[in-house]
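ugh ok so i messed up the first submission bc i forgot one of the chains. this is the corrected input, ALL of the components this time, i swear. 892 residues overall. if the numbers dont match what u have on ur side tell me asap before i send this to the collaborators (the ones from the other lab, u know who)
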Amino acid sequence: MSTPNFQFDIGLDLFPLLAATLAAVGCGLLGNFLVLRKLSLMGDAISHSVLPGLVIAFLIASTRSPLVMFLGAAIAGVTTVLLVELVKKYARVEPGAAMGVVFSALFALGVLLIERAAVRHIDLDADCVLHGQLETLVWYGAPKGLGELFHPSNLSEIPRQIYVLLGMVVTAFFFVGLFFKELRIAAFDPALSTTQGFNATLLHYLLMIFVAAATVASFEAVGSILVIAMLICPAATARLMTDRLLTQIVWSVLVALLCGIGGYIAATAVPAMFGKDAVNAAGSMSVVAGGILTIAIIGAPKHGLVTRLSHSKKLVRKISIDDVLAALYRAEEAGQTVTTYSLKQALVGRAVDPAITTAIRDNMVERDQYGLNLTPTGRVSASEIVRKHRLWEHYLVENAGFAPDHVHDTAEQLEHLKTQPPAGPTTDPHGKSIP
Amino acid sequence: MSLLASIPNPLGTSSITEVHDQMPSTSEILQTLTFQSGYNTNLVILGTTLLGLAAGIIGVFALLRKRSLMTDALSHATLPGIAIAFLTATTLGFNSKYIPTLLIGAGVTGIIGVLCIQAILRFSRLREDAAIGIVLSVFFGAGIVGLSYIQANAASGSAGLNKFIYGQAATMQPPDVLLMGGIALAAILATFLFLKEFALICFNDSFAKVDGWPVSMIDLVMMGLVVLVTVAGLQAVGLILVVAMLIIPAVAARLWTERLLQLVIIAGLIGAGSGYLGSVISALLPRKPAGAVIVLTCSGIFVLSMIAAPSRGIVSAVVRRVRLRLKIEADHIFEHAYESSSNLISNTELKDLSGFRGWTMAFRWMLIRSMLNAGQAVRTNVGLELTNAGTHRGAQVSRNHALWEQYLMSYADIAPSHVDWSVDQVEHVLSQELVNELERTLSSRGITIPQPNESSA
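and heres the new structure output, hopefully the right one now
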């Protein structure tokens, strides 16, 4: 590409883009159930271990017909799951180690067989297995304009991989749509699923066969690395965005779409802007997926880092104010005056100054020349907190068997909860009256 | 045989373009095995053996810390580092093919990858499996982008950076071998010095923390060794398969022993053995990717271990099952004979039984052999005749049955009509201590089961 400006060329760019996006969407859809069942790495394992199945199927049948390839992959996928179970059972190691043993051994076998196959001048190649050959998906009979896009003579030139990927995506959507209820129950509670009459193990194997099939369909075009990235990243991103399964699936498909298109642009158009040659699109899609996930980890509405930090900050502030109010209330009870200095002495580790500022602003506390005092509204809130504290103390001593001199610290934490302690008693274990 | 011949050989030798592998002669094999087939081959064999030794030892600790697959993410995350190091060296005008620079880059991004896993676990609700998968695929994708960028845009081309993916043991140089040796030595030294500490945090890290051990420090030493082995293994077996060198020997050793020191020694030996054998095989059969051959050799040792390991192996598990079943079936025969007060099991009875209990011919033969060998029965014309020992065994089983039945009825509140079946399962595995205990417990409730009167049988 000598021109620094990137031009979208239907013949050169449409199919790679389409293939990558299809692969991303199909894998992203299936990945939801892997991530939920803590099986993400099973996807990783299977996408490595279908390799020998693929090569053996090819060497036996001497054809690259999709059916043969899928058969080889499905057998390899199920074999992987069975072997992992076997290693787990006999070596008594964690599932991760068992997977590691099985998939690395099978992958090594695959690499060896590929080298054998390569000797026979067969266009299977270990590198292409990893990062695909998107650039080979050229539409030789590409139409000049959009109007000719669906002309029959042009459609016949569409590369086989596109059909295979399209078939995979449609089947995956059918599978998920048809077994949605079963997949959902098995994802959250496999034992319940089995007692309800949906065999969770069977469903598990079916899912693994689909993962293997998706891997194979994507192999030629985008390579195994994008398969792993798309099985895990979109679903993980979606998992941070929502708590509902259906919404999560929609999110994951959208993220996968975005990864496919964004990754392709990042691989072709962005280097072109700097006058460089295009880079590997499958790899760049994985990077985009990682970028989107990072954004989700930081900024997701409920489970994001920012939200959670601001929640915990708010909570810390509320606890500080609660403590200031309670301290003022107790001082009032005892007839002592309270100054900012004495509060700081009493409440070590709390942000006293901002708490006082907020309390004064909210008209809970007022400052006079002697020190700090509660306003009538402040007194109501403070009495509520002290009431909770003393009720909790009472509860802990009477019902939880704590010694009276050990309850203060625990009650100090419980008083900030929204949960109400059981009402009724009028004095706390130390003989103070409960407001 | 003709059937086999009719199936086309999957590895096909019919193609014209096929270059036939020549089976190496015995003398060639011996030469290679004994380091007499040339300087370069010797370097490779020595290097991979040392690598296998180091990886085997360190893999044990990764396995016990449940970090097997984290090492996979680590090794995949080295790729962008290699690309970045190459580009940086090129930009700064250094020799971009200088291996140590590339390996340092690899180590740096590998460590960043591991830190990212920790960060994802710490700051999001994603679980470890997802975190590992994310780091693995995203970092590797970044590496692929880097490599393709170098391939397309750098003046010198990718310059064989691909070799780090699948490994290229044949390019091993004396410094590489020294590096492997150094790491193997470090692994042995660290194990020797810190075995107690490693064991402590592998088996109970919270206790170690409470007990005041510098857990994160020790963990760092272990993780550092894993990073060293991974980076050193990149050239030899490649970043996809280096995880196999760490995991497989450790898991294989786990089949052989339960003691940590033995585990470390066996895993080290398996790792070294597969490095040695694998590189010898790939030296004898050229054009085979050495990394894959080494890993497959290792897997072969693993499969053998899985089949033949003394107590956890498949063979011993099968033997145990058959023994138990023999015992149970024989128990039933003796019990039945004792309870029906007859010393004779006729041939027709045996035949009926074998249909009813689903014995195969072989099992029936073994069953009868075991009874004869134990001197509990003798063969006569009409069938099997119980000896005194046989009658005694029947009486014991029958009494155990009654004891357990009484126990279930009086302590577990199971209805008398429901106990028989579950007792049939348990009566065979009651130890003498348990029988004594049952006698004591039951007699405290005033229930006694009389010792069998064997002469009446």
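quick check: The domain at 310-414 of chain A is CATH 1.10.10.10 (Arc Repressor Mutant, subunit A). that seems consistent at least. Residues 392 and 414 of chain A are 7 Å apart (CA to CA).
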